[in-house]
Structure to design on (960 residues):
């Protein structure tokens, strides 16, 4: 009896803890989208959550009913509460096969349409003009990010500036291990893979600084492979790009090779891009870094305190 | 060559582990010698082909592996809750999550379930042993040596560190030099071959050795789940074998299947891995479903609801399990159409699984539920597994998965299904069949303590991780560098230690029950509520299982037998029983192959070739082995049965 009493007290805590958790959800990055792509994914998640909540409520209530009503020692059990030979009912089994099928269908339609939408630049909001996406090549190497802006002729390392209210077309590739570009506030991720290119459309509607990172494990420096995304107005963005173009040094092939060495590097900016002399998205550029730095890949970094890294702030 | 090239040096935690391993080994050697148990160990265990003893060895090894994997888990949780402590560095953390994942799936969950199948399936179908007892011993030793090989990696040579999925090109020779990744390849390869053999062995056993009259749709549900699992094993494991072999050839002999440098196809690894890896998930969950079905029916004292639907849903799940592997890399840019197809097929798995959940609930309807420890594990599974199942559907929605992928949301999901499904089932099944294995029950009071500690620990540990994922925390991160993540991580760590405590109490219960539990007198241990044939045998079970094999033509045959006052034993029908002889050959053959694998790991080709030759010689010897076993005479059977039945 004692244990049962205890359990019912604990059961009371479940809704309470749920409320506590859910009140914190407003701040969860994924549930607090800052752009149309993250928004559409958030809508889909929210939509699915209602179905999931429904399933949980139904199963939990049935479960509670069964174990309370049909426990062996319940006072006031009737003779009719036990029927050891009851072992099937076709009608009810068909019902609980069809209802989940309907739920799956209802989840499939928005999933499929969203999937097709995500392959295109986000649609402009009503009354706004569609803008050409800004193309940014995002290339990873162990363990840093290169962002090349062919239109502006500039390249940044480990940080990103983007204009708001304009789609960004990321062209993802990697110089060595497989990674993934993930900026949760702006939308979901895709893989960067050597020798090929994947496309990811994202867009920021609000100005601000967002966290971005590599989310696919790629070795020792994985945790430090993060970057900040500075979303700012078109004007500010242009001014920033121009400043980099005027003030930063050009990215020479030697400098780029130096940067590709396995290890961590700080933020950096250049007034030209590496796309002019190497394309990691083609089969030809594929083994290039591994060949050059085969010996360096054997060395351990022994990272135990990466907070000192400037890129990590 | 220098000793530091082989032994792992420079880590205080690893030095401590080395010392404790040395001490435990010396203690075992001393005790075996002191009590003169070497002969006993060899005669009774190392050479056994008895499915019940092999099953017990599987389960003991799996419990040891659960301890190892659990220690890994707690070390990771300490690191994540106290990032400033500098407990683990990045490299060490990477090795730990890699071995945690690999050990828990390959060397804990699967062997634990295969151990239960080993003991119970022949009993449930009225068979005297496996179809191929020799191969069964071979399978066990291949798993055992594979697991040992994998486990020594952290003191000798260094652990693998590319994650349990071991994605290329990261896990290739260029970016992960040294023996660590080879340990992963050879450890999995060696034990994988045993698993494949077990799959074939059990499949033949179930299809060919059922008691007379027993049709497929008369089989107990756990046997059904085993049969379906065996089909998955037989179709999925060859893919793993090939993938591991290709990567081994890449790493050791310089081929270019998955490399960047020679126009290899690194992404092909992800495909091959998950073509095996996704069905693998069902290899460890379907037997769990079978165990829960048996336990719920027994302690609800009622026939399982919707037996046919339960069987068909397992078959459908097995088929679908091969059609969804791409959902592990929706983010690989395969395009909207491909992702749509795999998204829908993934969500469809929820339908047969839902049918099963409702059938279990319906089994409880109009029942008399007895809250024994085994039943509590089985009941706790239902609400816990639902929380993992619904988030699985959410992950299956590819467009949303772009946000969940590689995040703690995923980590929470798969721990919710694997722990609430497989681990709860392992504990439930062990407690439930314990009297059959050891002739006494586990203590119920201590068992309930273990249950509640583990159950609450589990939810406290993994529920917060859904929210960490939604806040953008990726998996495999060795340091929580964002302040907002810290509180939930600390809660999660507290839960992990709750689970650790629950496991400790569970293991203590094994010792306590061995000393103090009442010995079983009858074979039908759970107050006479057994429904299937394993409860119709005496306890302890004679080595030939059934003196006379019963005729079966219905589900739950033992219920009717009891109603009619019959037993499986009919003295007038006794005949000599043919049994296989014990042999040390499987142990020796696998020891040779393990030696060869060890040589390959360090690329010592002479050792590798020597081990291989040893293995081949053992195979040749086996092919000239004319020992066809022996017969147990009627007098002997009569003596054993009369003693056990108190006649």
């Amino acid at each position: 009896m004692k244990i049962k009493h205890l359990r019912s007290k604990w059961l009371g805590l479940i809704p309470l803890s749920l409320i506590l958790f859910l009140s914190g959800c407003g701040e969860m990055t994924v549930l607090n989208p800052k752009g149309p792509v993250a928004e559409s994914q958030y809508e889909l998640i929210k939509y699915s959550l209602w179905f999931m909540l429904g399933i949980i409520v139904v199963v939990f209530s049935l479960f509670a009913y069964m174990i309370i009503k049909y426990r062996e020692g319940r006072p006031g059990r009737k003779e009719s509460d036990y029927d050891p030979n009851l072992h099937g009912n076709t009608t009810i089994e068909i019902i609980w096969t069809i209802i989940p099928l309907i739920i799956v269908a209802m989840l499939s339609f928005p999933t499929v349409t969203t999937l097709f939408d995500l392959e295109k630049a986000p649609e402009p909001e009503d009354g706004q003009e569609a803008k050409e996406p800004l193309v940014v090549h995002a290339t990873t190497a162990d363990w840093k990010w290169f962002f090349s802006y062919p239109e502006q002729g500039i390249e940044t390392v480990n940080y990103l500036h983007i204009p708001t209210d304009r789609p960004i077309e990321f062209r993802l590739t990697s110089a060595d291990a497989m990674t993934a570009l993930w900026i949760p506030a702006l939308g979901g991720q895709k893989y960067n893979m050597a020798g090929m290119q994947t496309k990811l459309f994202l867009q920021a509607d609000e100005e601000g600084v967002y966290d971005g990172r590599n989310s696919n494990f790629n070795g020792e420096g994985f945790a430090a492979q993060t970057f900040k995304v500075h979303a700012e107005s078109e004007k500010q963005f242009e001014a920033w790009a121009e400043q980099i173009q005027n003030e930063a040094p050009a990215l020479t092939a030697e400098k780029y090779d130096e940067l590709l060495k396995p290890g961590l590097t700080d933020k950096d900016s250049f007034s030209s891009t590496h796309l002019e002399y190497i394309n990691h998205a083609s089969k030809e550029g594929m083994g290039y870094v591994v060949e050059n730095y085969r010996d360096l890949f054997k060395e351990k970094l022994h990272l135990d305190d990466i907070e000192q890294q400037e890129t990590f702030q | 060559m220098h000793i530091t090239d082989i032994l792992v040096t420079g880590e205080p935690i690893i030095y401590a582990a080395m010392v404790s391993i040395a001490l435990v080994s010396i203690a075992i050697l001393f005790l075996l010698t002191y009590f003169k148990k070497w002969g006993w160990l060899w005669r009774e265990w190392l050479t056994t082909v008895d499915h019940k003893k092999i099953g017990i060895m599987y389960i003991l090894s799996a419990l040891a592996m659960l301890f190892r994997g659990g220690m890994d888990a707690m070390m990771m949780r300490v690191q994540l809750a106290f990032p400033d402590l500098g407990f683990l560095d990045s490299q060490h953390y990477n090795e730990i999550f890699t071995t945690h994942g690999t050990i828990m799936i390959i060397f804990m969950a699967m062997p634990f379930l295969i151990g239960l199948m080993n003991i119970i399936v022949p009993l449930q179908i009225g068979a005297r042993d496996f179809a191929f007892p020799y191969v069964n011993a071979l399978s066990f030793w291949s798993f055992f040596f594979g697991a040992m090989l994998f486990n020594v990696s952290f003191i000798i040579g260094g652990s693998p560190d590319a994650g349990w999925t071991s994605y290329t090109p990261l896990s290739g020779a260029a970016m992960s030099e040294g023996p660590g990744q080879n340990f992963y390849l050879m450890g999995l390869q060696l034990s994988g071959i045993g698993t494949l053999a077990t799959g074939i062995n059990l499949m033949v056993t179930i299809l060919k050795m059922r008691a007379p009259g027993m049709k497929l749709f008369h089989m107990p549900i756990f046997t059904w789940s085993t049969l379906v699992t065996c089909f998955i094993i037989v179709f999925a494991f060859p893919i793993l074998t090939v993938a591991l072999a290709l990567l081994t050839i890449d790493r050791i002999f310089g081929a270019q299947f998955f490399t960047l440098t020679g126009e290899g196809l690194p992404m092909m690894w992800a495909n091959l891995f998950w073509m095996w890896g996704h069905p693998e998930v069902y290899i460890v969950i379907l037997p769990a479903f079978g165990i829960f079905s048996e336990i719920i029916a027994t302690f609800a004292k009622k026939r399982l609801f919707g037996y046919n639907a339960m069987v068909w849903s397992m078959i459908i799940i097995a088929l679908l399990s091969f059609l969804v592997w791409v959902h592990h890399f929706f983010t690989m840019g395969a395009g909207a159409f491909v992702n749509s197809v795999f998204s829908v097929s993934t969500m469809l798995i929820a339908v047969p699984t839902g049918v099963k959940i409702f059938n279990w609930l319906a089994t409880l309807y109009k029942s008399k539920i007895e809250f024994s420890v085994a039943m509590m594990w089985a009941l706790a599974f239902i609400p816990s597994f639902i929380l993992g199942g619904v988030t699985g559907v959410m992950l299956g929605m590819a467009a949303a998965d772009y946000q969940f992928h590689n995040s703690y949301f995923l980590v929470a999901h798969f721990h919710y299904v694997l722990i609430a499904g497989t681990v709860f089932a392992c504990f439930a099944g062990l407690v439930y069949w314990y009297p059959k294995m050891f002739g006494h029950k586990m203590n119920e009071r201590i068992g309930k303590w273990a249950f509640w500690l583990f159950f609450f620990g589990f939810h406290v540990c993994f529920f917060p991780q859904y929210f960490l994922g939604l806040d953008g925390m990726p998996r495999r991160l060795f340091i929580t560098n964002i302040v907002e993540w810290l509180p939930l991580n600390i809660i999660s760590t507290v839960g992990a230690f709750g689970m650790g405590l629950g496991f400790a109490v569970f293991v203590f219960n094994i010792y306590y029950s061995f000393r103090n539990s009442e010995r079983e007198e009858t074979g039908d241990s759970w107050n006479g509520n057994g429904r299937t044939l394993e409860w119709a045998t005496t306890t302890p079970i004679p080595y030939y299982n059934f003196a006379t094999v019963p005729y079966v033509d219905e589900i739950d045959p033992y219920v009717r037998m009891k109603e009619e006052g019959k037993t499986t034993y009919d003295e007038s029908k006794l005949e000599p029983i043919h049994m296989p002889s014990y042999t040390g050959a499987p142990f020796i053959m696998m020891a040779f192959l393990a030696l060869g694998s060890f040589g390959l790991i360090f690329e010592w080709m002479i050792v590798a070739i020597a081990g291989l030759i040893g293995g081949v010689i053992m195979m040749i010897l086996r092919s000239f082995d004319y020992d066809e076993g022996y017969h147990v005479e009627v007098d002997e059977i009569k003596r054993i049965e009369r003693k056990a039945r108190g006649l």
Remarks:
- The longest strand of chain B covers residues 577-579.
- Chain B has a mean pLDDT of 94.
- Chain B has one domain: 36-583+627-645.
- Residues 169 and 368 of chain B are 56 Å apart (CA to CA).
